[in-house]
Each structure stands twice: as structure tokens, then as C-alpha cells.
Amino acid sequence: MFKAVAALAAVVAGLSVGNADAAGFVTYHLEAPSPTLGHPIPYAVYTPFASPAEGERWPVVYLLHGTSGKDGDWFTWGNLGPILDAALAAGRIPPLVVVAPGMGDSWYVDDPDPGSYGLVDTAIVKDLIPAIDGSLPTAACRQARAIGGLSMGGAGAVLQAINHPDTYVAAMSFSGALHQPIVKGDPRLGWLTGLYSGIFGSPFSVPRFNAANAFNRMIKLEGVPDKPAFYLTIGDDDFADLIEASAKFHDRLREMHVDTTLRVTAGRHFWDTWQQAIIPALEWLAPKLDATCRG
Asked: Residue 294: inside a domain, yes or no?
């Protein structure tokens, strides 16, 4: 039995389901078993009430952290619990579960090298999602599941949706570190490779980086009948290369006739910007979610 069951039962006991003004609950220090990685995946989770209304289940959103981050950052640094409570009470978003896992500085890719973070992309889909659906009253279907993330996690969320379009109805990138593929003589080589800390081999392998790059992998969506929708948001005072990358990624998706939205707002590459951006993103997401799992 997952640790989440006992922990959540203790935390949420006694809350009235019908009280829309009541605070939801954030539970930390949970773990999902991961045979893929060989160790548990830590996560924190937000639940809006003690349980859904009778006969209903909740949609779920996975939110990924940035570099040097950990599980629950969205709730600690991001203060997301009260933000969700206020939006839910105001009727801006539906009741939903939010899961914030910790995956280290893995860039959310499958890395088979010895001593690496392991097959992280695979573990999220094969291990984490089934653990959540097995321990919480989530609607266990693509139509009720989305993923998002900030900075490194924004790139990870986009990759998850591209690599697993049958798993997510949408992906949200907050200041996503969508670094474009490396080309011959690329002036970014002086600093870009240092961001990945052995993720693509030691020494850094340009072919491996480019093969895993979201710009190159988005072609996988061409033959997909039900393509995930994408929401890209970034502050106007963010890093110039990331602003350019989000705009170009949005344009490429449009060329492929993928449902995509780009928002450039006031803000920098920090939590104050992402705190302001999360509810507009969830408002965009809400009509795309279907917790009845029809279709």
C-alpha cells in the first residue's frame, strides 16, 4: 500500500466535500515505487477536498520543478496551495489534484548511462502516474490528465507530451528551458553544455542532446490523431534565448496545426512570475479536461 494513502487519510479527515471555501490540502514526503529507476519517486500532492462528490473523480495535473529543485517546490517556493484554494473558491478552476514530483537535475529524459538519473521520462509514465491513479480518486485517463513545469521542468513537460501523447491532453511550459538544437559552430557551446551536467554523456554528446531535443522530437506528433495542446508562457524580463525559444516552438507547433497558445507577460525567471502565471494556465486547461473519461 502506498504511503500516500495513510498520509492523505490522516490529513484530510473531517473536511466537508461541499464547502467550496474550505482550504485544500498539501501533503509532503510521499513516495511512489519505481521499478524503472530502482528507487522511489518522491512527491508532494494537493487535493481540493477529502473526496470527490459521489460518482465523480478528479482530473490531475503534474507540475515539474526546475534545476536544483525538488519535490514540492511548487507548494513551498510557489505557494501553490493557497493560490489553488482561492481560484477554486472563486470558481476559476475545477477541483483537481496537483502532483509535484522530485526528479533531480535529470532534465526529465531517459539516460541509460551508469550512475545517471536513469530512465526518468519512462518512470513518470510507467511508475508515477499509475501510483497516483492507484492511491487517489483521480480520473485515470488521458482526457483528465495534464503536465506542466517551470524552466527545466517546462522543457520536461513538453517532452512528456511529445513522447507520450496518449497520456496527456495538454502540456504547460512556464519559462521553459526549451534550448534549441545545437548546430555546427554554435556560439552557445561555451555555456549551454554546462547546464546538463553529464545528462548527455561525459564529454557532452551533441548528437544525444539533439536527438532528445523537443524541437527535433515534435515531428513525432504529425501522425498522432489526438495531439496534446500546448500552453507556453514566459516573462518579458526572462532570458532572451528562452523567450525566443518559446516563440519559435509555438510557431513550429502552429505550422503542424497543433493547438498552441503563447503568452508573454510581465515578469522574470522566478517564482513571482510563475505564481502569477499558474491560474491563467489552469483556466486555459480547464475546458480541455474531461474527468468523465468519455471518448
From this structure: no
Spatial neighbors of 18 by CB under 8 A, at least 6 apart, are none
Secondary structure letter of residue 180 according to DSSP: P
Average pLDDT of the chain is: 92
Total domains in the fold of the chain:
1
**Planar angle of CA 98, 103, 104, nearest 5 degrees:** 135
Strands (E), 22-68: 25-32, 41-47, 60-64
Residue 22 pLDDT class (50, 70, 90 cuts):
low
State which residues form the domain around 181.
Answer: 3-288
**What is the DSSP pairing of strand 145-150 with strand 260-265?**
unpaired
| Residue 293 within any structural domain of the chain | no
Would residue 295 count as lying in a domain? Answer: no
What pLDDT shows up at residue 14?
Answer: 30
How far apart are the C-alpha atoms of 113 and 92, rounded to whole Å?
Answer: 44
pLDDT tens-digit profile of 191-222?
A: 999 999 999 999 999 999 999 999 999 999 99
Q: Report the distance separating Cα 277 and Cα 84, nearest Å.
A: 12
Residue 122, burial from CB neighbour count under 10 angstroms (0-12, 13-18, 19+): middle
Nearest to residue 96, comparing CAs of 10, 175, 13, 169?
169
CA-wise closest residue to 59 among 153, 149, 6, 136 = 136
Residue 51 lies in a domain: yes
Report the alpha-carbon angle 69-154-129, nearest 5.
Answer: 80
Q: What is the pTM of this model?
A: 0.92
CATH number of the domain to which 24 belongs: 3.40.50.1820
pLDDT per residue over 75-101, tens digit each?
999 999 999 999 999 999 999 999 999
Joined together, the cell numbers standing for residue 199 give 545528462
